[in-house]
User: Fold these one by one.
Assistant:
Number 1:
Amino acid sequence: MNSFASSLIDVFIGLGSNLAMPTSQILSARDAIIAHNDISECAFSSLYHSSPMGPQDQPDYVNAVLCAQTHLTALQLLQFLQDIEHAQGRIRKEQRWGARTLDLDILLYGNETIDLPELIVPHLGITERAFVLYPLNEIAPNINIPSKGHIAELIKRCPLAGLKKLSTHASS
Ligand code: ROI
């Protein structure tokens, strides 16, 4: 590696879907993410079934968390994830906090805190979201979330809110 290469960063990506066969959406997104030649998967959580946070007149969600290593910058990664959302039929302008075919969020980018108009890391609301914290805890039980605290402490303060682990990664 030459001295100009950016370093390898551990990233955590949250995946969520509640439309158009959510489990298939999540598994296709995982495949698309790890098909990138500068992204290698370290771990993929179980799939979780969760009640909607926000408006209740929408279907339940399937959620998961992926851990990967990459040299991409956070903004390059964001662009790549948005391209996958669009390829899988995500239409922005949907109702705020409404149903979506696919949501890919950068939860953590190494130990960095990022505060840009287009990207805030750690993801806002991470500490209130059981559908993020529990899958994250499954694959990274020792992680410290910058400026928020240790995952074990955060989990204690976050009720399950109807979250259920699905027993299989098989598509449905
Ligand atoms: N609720 C759940 N359970 N899972 C999600 O991924 C999710 N994503 C969202 C909002 C609308 C906030 N609610 C969610 O963006």
Note: The chain has a mean pLDDT of 92.
Number 2:
Amino acid sequence: MAILKIARMGHPILLQNCEPVTDPGAPEIRRLVADMMETMEDASGAGLAAPQVYVPLRLFVFRVAEARGLEDADDVPVGNTVVINPEVELLTDERVLRWEGCLSIPGLRAAVPRAPRVRYRGVDCDGTVVEREVSGFHAGVVQHEFDHLNGILYPMRMKDFSLFGFTEELARAAAARQAG
Ligand code: NI
């Protein structure tokens, strides 16, 4: 396994529409998925999409960690998961603001409008269908990673840029608010 280099915002590969994976079980896809999971863990990320490691294919990995401070009663921890050739269906017209970061936009966070509930479907490397209806953090991370496959980065979803900042400053401001 290997830690992969992560593309940062500004690199054109992040704006590309990715191609479907023709053989999810191919050795090079299995290796890519294992390396992406290792890279995500190494970077303390919640998700990573293939174009972020310079591979313009329709697959992403993610996890919902226990330590996430699970925001939703339906939100349960999920171990490392791969979704290949995903489809995502937003289950409501409602949008909620969710705080997000991105390994391709290091050091920054923002509140991004997302559907609170989605259904997604894809396959893993064994061709097993992964199909879930989810809410909370899980729904947010899936929308974020799916966007990467269509060349969309979270700032492109934002409406209120006053809710965009450096993680460090946002944490300082939140601590000051609590103290004050
Ligand atoms: Ni991202």
Note: The radius of gyration is 16 Å.
